[in-house]
Each structure stands twice: as C-alpha cells, then as structure tokens.
Amino acid sequence: MKYILIGAGSRGMTYGAWAAEHGIEIAAVAEKRPDRLADAGQKLKVPENMRFSDGLALLSLGKIADAAIIATMDRDHFAHTMAALDCGYDILLEKPISPDPRECVAIEEKANTLGRRITVCHVLRYTNFFGTLKQILDGGELGKIVAIKHSENIGNYHMAHSFVRGNWRNDRLSSPIILQKSCHDLDILLWLTGSHCTKVSAFGGLSFFRPENAPQGAGERCCDCPAADTCRFNAYRVYTPLLGQWPADVVCLEQTPEALEKALRSGPYGRCVYRCDNNVCDHMSMILEFENGVTATFSLTAQTNAVHRNLHIMCEDGEIEADDGKRQIVVTKFAASPAESFDSRVINVRTGPSGHGGGDAGIMEDFTEGLQNPDRESRSSISRSVESHLMACALEQSRLTGKTVDMAAFRASLLE
Ligand SMILES: NC(=O)c1ccc[n+]([C@@H]2O[C@H](COP(=O)([O-])OP(=O)(O)OC[C@H]3O[C@@H](n4cnc5c(N)ncnc54)[C@H](O)[C@@H]3O)[C@@H](O)[C@H]2O)c1
C-alpha cells in the first residue's frame, strides 16, 4: 500500500506515523513549511525528490499511490480534494470538508459521480466508546431512541489553546466552531439516531475571551504582562510543564525550553487570551429534530475543567448515561414502579492508546481495510459526512438569524 500525504502538520503527521508503523509507504509528501517538510520527509522516509512545498504541485504528478491523505487547513481542503479526485485518488480527508456548504456538496457530488471513496476524519465513530453505544442502541434492548441530551465540554484550556490563540480562533481564517469542532458531535447524533436531521435551532456567542475580561493592566503578550503571575492563562504556566506533549508540541516544532521561550515571545500562543483576534463562540445551546421523531439538545461549552463528551439517551424501555471522559456507559432498563428493582449495568469501556480515544488509529485501520476490500461496508460515507456539515452550517445560520432552520430548505438554498 502507498499513500501520499498533503499537509504534514499535527494531524497529517499522526496519520503519516500510523501509516509508516503499519508498513504503508508514504510515496510523496507536500507541506508548505520548510521545517515541517524536512521533518516529515525524514521521519516518513520520503525521497528528497518526492517532497513538495505545495499540495497542488504534488497532485500535478497524477496518481502515484493508492490513496491521498489530506490534512491541510480547513480552507485548503476544497482545492486539494477536487484535484485529488481528478487524479483518481480515494481520500482520507480531515474535517471540516470545507467551511463553505456549497463546496461540501460539490465534493460529495464529484466523489459520488466518480465512484471514489472519501472518508472524512470523524474519528469518534471509530472509537470503542461510541462503537459500544451504537451496538447497544442497534441491539434494541431499550427500544427506539426517543430523545438525546448531548454535551461537548471543550475544556477552558483547550478552548484557549485552539479556539482563542490557535488555528481555529476566527471563522474567517478557518470556520465557525460549530462546524470546526462539533461536526464530530453532529455526525455522532446522525449515526446513533440512524436518521436524517429535519430542523435545527441555536443560541450562543462569545462571552468570556474578550478584551473587557482582561485582568487590569494586562499586556498584549504573557512575556511582558504585569498580571502574568496571577493569570491561569499565562502561556508559560500552560505550556512549560507540557513540553514534549500536546498542546506544547503545537507551539514549536523543536521541543526544547529555548524554542518554546522563543515561540511564546513572538508566536500566536504567547498572546493574551483576552486580546486575540478570536471571534468563535465559547458557548452554544441547540435543539435538533430528526426524521424518525427523535429530538436532541446539544450543548457546546468552553467553560469546563475537563475535556469530555457526555450523553443521556432516552429510549422507549430504558436509558443510557455515557461519559467518554470517565470511559463509562450506564445502561438502565425501566421497572414497572419504584417498588420494583430495575436492571442497570455499568460498562467500563477500554479505549485504544492512540489520540481521540483510539479513533485516530481506528479510522486509519478502517480506511486502509476499506481500500483492501472495496466491498466491505464502511462506517461512514462522504454523503453522511456532508449531512453533519450542513447541519452545522444551518445551526450557525439559526444562531445568527434567531430563526429555526429547515434542513431541506437549507440544502435547496445552496443550489440558488
Ligand atoms: N479529526 C480531528 O479530530 C481533528 C483534530 C484537529 C484538527 N483537525 C483538522 O485537521 C486539519 C489540520 O489541522 P492541524 O492541527 O494538523 O493543523 P496544522 O496547521 O498543524 O497542519 C496543517 C498543515 O498544512 C500545511 N499546509 C498549508 N497549506 C499547504 C499547501 N498548500 N500544501 C501543503 N501543505 C500545506 C501547513 O503548513 C500545516 O503544516 C484542519 O482542517 C483541522 O480542522 C481535525
């Protein structure tokens, strides 16, 4: 098996490293940053003449491998994916497919017309945790799903790192947080309900990471901030103890105290969290209706200590409470009255060692097996992934207009 890799950043290198460890050759790599290109070329053993500084230059070679991994930034996905489809590649594509819903649909149509497989990196589908939930629900012991309460707890430090200082802080640079972060959650709701979304409503905004909440006298950067000693977002306090691990490994390539110091003095991650060019929401509350009658509420919040997702799934004959942070699923069957004992079991889910609760390795395995056995049913499809993206875009429209959005009308409006 041979893959090409376009975008050798944090995500690209996760997939590249998995491929290299599993005997898959990375035939060529494209990466804009020279330091990252050299690092990827060396770690993934890519010959010098197969290292490119741009994805389109690599794709101009035509099809030279079995599949393409596209892990560039959100706004580059469309051009790279359309060109890779023209070459004849099956594709592992990082989410979001594109920040523009019309581009998502164009990719879907082209892939389906050409009969090419695009697996969007909705890594949660490939975890034991969500896989176990899906199995219980499909097994039918609790009857049909009636309603779901789902929460995505981003974690205040994760929010500050990725969505205030980092790549996804501003929707004009990447995409709204509901698409960028929560297309995963919307995909999971589609998967668990096994249905299609019909209507959505959303409320929310950016409350906390704003200039008016900065400590008195705070500077533009932590290195010269008089309030640094008492601020929990002080970048030195956040990143120094985590050198060699996420998220410090995103701040600078070389994981030394000197390189970190330099990056925090001049780079984006040393900026005051209250004085960044961020505009994405730090909280959203949403309601969704599905074709099979299931209703769901979904809450996305930055203001939590832990990074985790929890769900309460109410079914006809029982309920499930699940928390991926605790790796625990509690399944309860209803009794006739409080006088009767009821059936409840606790499942402690084993998670894989790779990132995203084992989902990073899980998706690579599934994608690779799918290429080797094309008749094998995949856990997802480009059309299912586009559906979650359109839900996210409709939710953002609802938040901005204050109106409930009908999904069929939203999709039809994309053709106008
Ligand atoms: N599936 C998930 O759970 C998950 C998690 C985090 C990020 N993501 C997504 O993965 C994508 C990449 O995120 P990341 O954290 O790796 O970002 P990153 O910035 O570390 O990596 C992107 C890389 O693409 C390179 N690049 C930019 N333009 C290029 C071009 N024309 N040709 C070749 N390379 C180019 C950049 O230099 C950078 O190194 C984003 O779209 C992001 O939304 C997905």
What does this structure look like?
- The chain is α/β, with parallel strands linked by helices and 416 residues long.
- The chain has three domains: 2-117, NAD(P)-binding Rossmann-like Domain (Rossmann fold, 3-Layer(aba) Sandwich); 125-209 and 279-413, Dihydrodipicolinate Reductase, domain 2, CATH 3.30.360; 211-270, no CATH class.
- Helices cover 36% and strands 20% of the residues.
- α4 (77-87) packs parallel to α5.
- Nicotinamide-adenine-dinucleotide binds at residues 6-12, 30-33, 36, 54-55, 71-74, 76, 94-95, 121, 123, 167, 180, 356.
Set out the fold topology:
Elements: E1 2-6, H1 10-21, E2 25-30, H2 34-43, E3 51-52, H3 55-59, E4 67-70, H4 77-87, E5 90-93, H5 101-114, E6 118-120, H6 128-139, E7 145-153, H7 156-165, H8 177-180, H9 183-193, E8 197-205, H10 235-239, H11 248-251, H12 257-266, E9 283-290, E10 295-301, E11 308-315, E12 318-323, E13 328-333, E14 343-348, H13 359-372, H14 382-401, E15 405-406, H15 407-413
Parallel strand pairs: 1-2, 1-4, 2-3, 4-5, 5-6, 7-10
Antiparallel strand pairs: 7-11, 8-9, 8-15, 9-10, 11-12, 12-13, 13-14
Helix pairs in contact: 4-5, 5-14, 9-14
Bound molecules: nicotinamide-adenine-dinucleotide.
